[in-house]
Write a structure and sequence with these properties.
This protein is of the alpha/beta class and 584 residues long. It has five domains: 83 residues, DNA polymerase beta, N-terminal domain-like (DNA polymerase, domain 1, Orthogonal Bundle); 60 residues, 5' to 3' exonuclease, C-terminal subdomain (DNA polymerase, domain 1, Orthogonal Bundle); 89 residues, Beta Polymerase, domain 2, CATH 3.30.460.10; 78 residues, Beta Polymerase, domain 3, CATH 3.30.210.10; 235 residues, Alpha-Beta Barrel (TIM Barrel), CATH 3.20.20.140. It contains 23 helices and 17 strands. The strands form four sheets. Strands 11-12-13-14-15-16-17 form a seven-stranded parallel sheet. The longest helix is centred in the first third of the chain and has 17 residues. It starts with 9 loop residues before the first helix and ends in a 7-residue tail after the last helix. The protein binds one DNA strand of 29 nucleotides through helix 2, helix 4, helix 7, helix 9 and helix 14.
Length: 584
Amino acid sequence: MADIPPDLTNARIAELFDELGDLYELDGAVVHRVLAYRNAAKAVRDASRSVATLTREGTVTSLPGIGKTLEEKLKALVDTGSIPALDRLRGTFPPGLIAMTRLPGLGPKRARKLYDELQIDSLEALAQAAQDERLRGVKGFGPKFEVAVLEAIAAGHGDERSRRIPLYRAMETAGPIVEALRAHPASDEVHIAGSARRMADSVKDLDIIATASDPRALLDAFAALPELESAGNPGDNAARGITHNGLSIDVRVVEPDQLGNLLQHFTGSKNHNTALRAAAVRKGLHVSEYGITDDATGQTHRCATEEEVYALLGLPWIPPELREDRGELQFTGEADVPQLITQADLKGDLHMHTIASDGRATITEMAIAARERGLSYIAITDHSASHGFGNDVSPDELRRQIQRVREADAAVEGITILAGTEVNILPNGSLDYADDLLAELDWVVASVHTAFNLDERAMTQRIVHALEHPHVHALGHPTGRKIEQRPAYAVDIDAVIEAAARTGTFLEINSAPDRRDLHDVHARAAVAAGVLLVIDSDAHGPEKLGLTSWGVGTARRAWVTPTQVANTRSWEELAALRKGAPDR
DNA sequence: GCCGTTTTCGGCCCGACTGTTTTCAGTCG
């Protein structure tokens, strides 16, 4: 069996399927065929295993949305490096045509029409034609479109898919706005909906659903908030604002008896709602944001709560984090809904930094802050000997740090302080402290901080080697990704999960809000493989210990229950589960 | 192109808005 090309990552394959969808759409394919490619792209992107490998194994059709035809295309891609249909379509339509379809108001149908009738094949040619007022000669296009298209191109639309911002940054901006709406005398209930409510990694914009005694007063108050750069009224009971840092916020005020319908609709996800509605149709029910219509009676039920919406469809209430059409619509009753972990379940935090490396506080300060948060143990895990940036902890310094931890543990009541390290995994998979020094520690988390650009095979070997080390208890931020900033390094995450399961090493969900690494799909695969997770703050100061809410959000999206997370246990119980523990 | 408590064919979520059009297709979320 020939090797799988190293650059054939799931992300790359998903891109190719998306491109095929775009091209088939331009080619005039029926909408459902196009949709099939988009669905397949999402399934590939979400797959926890290498789709190229699944293709080689002949099991790729087990993924939802991948059938015989797409399997054939995947086989061609894996075997030859290309998909014949994609090559053919690329030869038919200039790449600029796809950029044109990204413009607001210009979809594939209309872009194709301009290409066929005016031979417009790029944003530049489109702008020129609009400038020359030639677009209005085509049926369906008029002067308003010429103005709009020039504005859109000037604003940079069409250059790329619209950018998303990490959820934590959106919430930093939106938090005060939501607080202001909640505090307003005219407001009753104020809910954040959309991907923010689902605790997604990133958001495009923010949806707020509210009920109010005086909708107009609330919307006017919203529009007048100093956080907004501009605001408008797209409808009677809605407002849209754009914050100074470019976040778009939609507010809808609804009647209390429809709050459940609207909240459900605007929480999404799109895939969840589409699948939910398709299932409802089979029962003779039609779901929209305004209610649920019954074919048999013609009556529309309005729902004040989401519980009613789901109950009418024969489903238990589904936690927003699960609403991704990843199996949650198979629930038949409350008993099927996993008891998802909450931040209150965490009893300890096993990854944080102090002034010994790049943290801002002392051991004692961190311990007191953790105790105030209700934690019963923490591990001090400063960076190791070769970390660089002036923050390295030499072996001798680590010995002194262990002593300081023992002293602090004795001095601070009500919390156990553990001596640990975040040791670097060097490019060859070895660690940058000696084994006898690591053996003195209570807790060792190993992480990759250098040489991110190894190829997948080398990176996987590097990490698996570290997981096999007898003193390594957990793998820190396992893929190195930063949300909307830096992709994961090339690594076979299935092999990492397998090695973690085999060696009894925990995998971390790092809660730094720009990391949230492992991400949800991989975390779900890890617990399915029997791996225990740890959810850590990676705090660099006392005020950052609460960041574990982000890691918990990721864990909930991964269907994780408290027992699947090691640090929901007491330190005594957890210690006994560590690799190499005497009674393990 | 996928899929099955309408199972191997014939379906595939729903409604609002837009610019253009005299009744609507395409786009968007």
